[in-house]
Each structure stands twice: as C-alpha cells, then as structure tokens.
Amino acid sequence: MALKISDECINCDVCEPECPNTAISQGEEIYEISPDKCTECIGHYDEPQCQQVCPVDCIQLDPAIVESPDQLMQKFIRLMKV
Fold first, then answer.
1. Minimal CA–CA distance to 35: which of 71, 73, 6, 62?
2. 11-26 pLDDT, tens per residue?
3. Listed GO cellular component terms (predicted)?
4. pTM for the full predicted model
5. Domains of the chain by range and CATH?
C-alpha cells in the first residue's frame, strides 16, 4: 500500500526531506504523498522514514491503494531508472 497523510498533519516539515523518492510535497492545506512515487521506503530502508519522524503519527497505509512488497520493489526499480 502507499502511505497517506491524514488531516491531523501539523505541517511541521519533517517528513518531506526524509522521503528518498521525493513522494512528499506540500499540498493546499497539508503535506501529501504521491502514490506513484511512494514505495514505503522499500529499496531504501527497512521502515518508512516519514512514519519514523512524524511527531503526530498522521502517516498511515492508504487502504485505497493496495500494493504487495513485490509491487513496491518493482516501483522502486522503475523510479531508480528515471
């Protein structure tokens, strides 16, 4: 699954620089995660770095975008070729 930032986000700016895929950006009101770029840090780290640094625990799995670890690894490989 891709990750999603909930409306509990306080715009603290700590998650954006931690994303190795540059999947996090400032939205109209809160930060947003691009599901096309989010690999849950597979290929880079053992755990999603944005979740590790979020002080309000507002970054969760997006149930609308279900992806297996293999699919996330394929996305990582595709992103690294760009």
1. 62
2. 999 999 999 999 999 9
3. cytoplasm
4. 0.92
5. 3-81 (3.30.70.20)
